[in-house]
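Supplementary Note 2. Why include the ligand at all?

Several targets in our set were suspected to adopt different conformations when bound, so apo predictions alone were not considered sufficient. For every target with a known small-molecule partner we therefore ran a joint prediction. The input for magnesium ion is given below.
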Amino acid sequence: MGAAQVQVRQGFAALYGAEPEGVWSAPGRVNLIGEHTDYNDGFVMPFALPHTAVAAVSRRTDGRLRLHSADVEGGIVELSLDDLAPESDKNWTAYPAGVVWALREAGHPVTGADVHLSSTVPSGAGLSSSAALEVVVALALNDLYELGLKRWQLARLCQRAENVYVGAPTGIMDQTASACCEAGHALFLDTRDLSQRQIPFDLAAEGMRLLVVDTQVKHAHSGGEYGKRRAGCEQGADLLGVHALRDVDHAELDTALERLGDEEEVRRLVRHVVTEDARVERVVDLLKAGDTRAIGPVLTEGHASLRDDFRVSCPELDLVVDTALAAGALGARMTGGGFGGSAIVLAEEADVVAITKAVEDAFATAGFTAPRVFEAVPSPGATRLA
Ligand code: ADP
Ligand code: MG
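The joint prediction is reproduced in token form.
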């Protein structure tokens, strides 16, 4: 039994005075390529982190929901299932409560739960601590109440919880990654029909590493900038007469951009989304061909597009990318929604120490908060631990 599992189980027993019926875990994720494509019906390619949310859960029959996080100050939060209402809760409890709300809204007979959880996924770092929280609770309730929902269906319900209950307009990537990823693989996900392919992604076997650099700049996902980008993409699709930007053919991009005339802002957004979808397909092709090192420049191109066209980077993320590349990285880019959060760096194993030091030195020189650098190994998706 892992240490986290033991701690969460013991924490549950101490709080609620009984052993939990089970213990589950769900990981955070990092997106290899395919940013801001998931709400445009496009492609994404996340893989699961070794960092997880672990939850001990038992059923209740009295319509009450009790929630506790080892990582948040304050005691048990107790809610009545009948009182759960969208956007009624601005605290962390909105994520698990939203999942219960979404399950019940969809007609599933959930009659209450006691939940105690703890997470090693850094919060607000663009690594999807929120999806880990949602998915771990959804999987626990699916098992305990024998709902028989498939992983992709749980992901959908979790997305609904985050969009409607929490009020954060995010796409389907984070929840699907947490629910469906497999160790040693990246998940090639078509966000239009939710079809998935597990693509072998084992960098260590080829002498490479993937670093995650958490800039410690907290992004605000539900903030206005994200909403503006989303609205701009919808406007672009409307102007081009397509259902979603996914439907703009990469080979016809120039023609499409011409048709947008002097809508400069929309043009930049469209150019990013269409080229980004093409980059995901290129990365899939390169990995399938065993040409892993060649994905480096594609990642770096993706960063330039997010910085210059989509305009969601920030000085800290740009500094990671520029410094890592100058220190010999094969490729680097911001990952996640942007405005802070994390960057990823693809590097030869032999260069990892020098790159890490270069990034840390550059942050110190710039007067930025020291970044957190760790290696990301493609890890398992959500699972029942006990
Ligand atoms: P991200 O998903 O990129 O980490 P979000 O803003 O989407 O960032 O989600 C972060 C929020 O998730 C936190 O503000 C908090 O409400 C909740 N959260 C994350 N981890 C925990 C935890 N261990 N315990 C309680 N709440 C958590
Ligand atoms: Mg999130």
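The domain at 200-375 is CATH 3.30.70.890 (Alpha-Beta Plaits). Residues 69, 71-72, 92, 95, 119, 123-130, 133, 221 surround adenosine-5'-diphosphate (ligand 1) (CB under 6 Å). Comparable summaries for the other entries are listed in the accompanying table.
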